[in-house]
């Protein structure tokens, strides 16, 4: 039995609320159970120096966890600089979104994604990716309606989910209680058309088998199909 009482293939309740930031061109408050992340997408009519005169745009992301997002207060990273975990997660978010954006169609401008974890209960990176796509979609629609771009640069949807082995059984969408004691955990990023963007998997003790990995992959694909549908209904 999972601590939450969910079945092995049951995600937490997922919701997307758009337009939660009046100033950002795109915004989404995504909730995976008790994990809540505010995602915003901002347009910038410039690109990084190394991309100038390339005719292509860029999508990048920053990730941050608010001080009291967890059981105990953490220091703001502005005081100590972004740690290795933060850098790894924000690079993952950026890679995931760039996988579904045509940089040529974007032109020489960039979209800046900010993912701020308001409350953490496991799966913050996967929630961030899934919510960031919705914010990105909103920002692109804003740009189209304001005549900034004519062609849609987004080529597909993208969503992410965590899976793992809890008490020896494969389960989907780990919360903190499961993640902190899982025998293995993995994060999967899929496009809406079924392409795999990234897989991160780690055994916390004994190695897990190829058969178990295949089961986790299957659980993740089904969950991301559901997330994709929810994204389309929202954005």
From TrEMBL:
It holds the Pfam family RNase_PH. GO terms for molecular function: 3'-5'-RNA exonuclease activity; tRNA binding; tRNA nucleotidyltransferase activity. This is Ribonuclease PH. Phosphate binds at residues 85, 123-125. Phosphorolytic 3'-5' exoribonuclease that plays an important role in tRNA 3'-end maturation. Removes nucleotide residues following the 3'-CCA terminus of tRNAs; can also add nucleotides to the ends of RNA molecules by using nucleoside diphosphates as substrates, but this may not be physiologically important. Probably plays a role in initiation of 16S rRNA degradation (leading to ribosome degradation) during starvation. It comes from the Bacteria. The keyword Transmembrane does not apply. It comes from Parvularcula marina. Keywords: Nucleotidyltransferase, RNA-binding, rRNA processing, Transferase, tRNA processing, tRNA-binding. Its EC number is 2.7.7.56. The keyword Nucleotide-binding does not apply. Gene3D superfamilies: GHMP Kinase, N-terminal domain. GO terms for biological process: rRNA 3'-end processing; rRNA catabolic process; tRNA processing. Residues 10-139, 156-222 form the Exoribonuclease phosphorolytic domain. Coiled coil: none annotated.
């Amino acid at each position: 039995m999972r601590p939450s009482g969910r079945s092995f293939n049951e995600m937490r309740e997922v919701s997307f609320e758009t337009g939660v930031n009046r100033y950002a061109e795109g915004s989404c408050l995504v909730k995976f159970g008790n994990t809540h992340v505010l995602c915003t997408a901002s347009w910038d009519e410039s690109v990084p120096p190394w991309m100038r005169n390339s005719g292509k745009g860029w999508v990048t992301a920053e990730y941050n966890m608010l001080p009291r997002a967890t059981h105990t207060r953490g220091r703001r990273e502005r005081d100590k600089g972004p740690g290795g975990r933060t850098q790894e997660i924000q690079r993952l978010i950026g890679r995931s979104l760039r996988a579904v954006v045509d940089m040529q169609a974007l032109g020489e401008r960039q979209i800046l994604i900010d993912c701020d974890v308001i409350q953490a209960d496991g799966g913050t990176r996967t929630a961030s990716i899934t919510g960031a796509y919705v914010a990105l979609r909103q920002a692109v629609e804003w740009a189209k309606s304001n005549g900034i771009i004519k062609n849609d640069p987004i080529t597909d949807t993208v969503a992410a989910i965590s899976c793992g082995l809890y008490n020896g059984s494969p389960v989907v969408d780990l919360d903190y209680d499961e993640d902190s004691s899982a025998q293995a955990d993995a994060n999967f990023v899929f496009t809406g058309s079924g392409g795999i963007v990234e897989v991160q998997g780690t055994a916390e003790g004994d190695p897990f088998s190829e058969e178990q990995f295949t089961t986790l992959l299957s659980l993740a694909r089904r969950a991301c199909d559901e997330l994709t549908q929810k994204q389309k209904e929202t954005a």
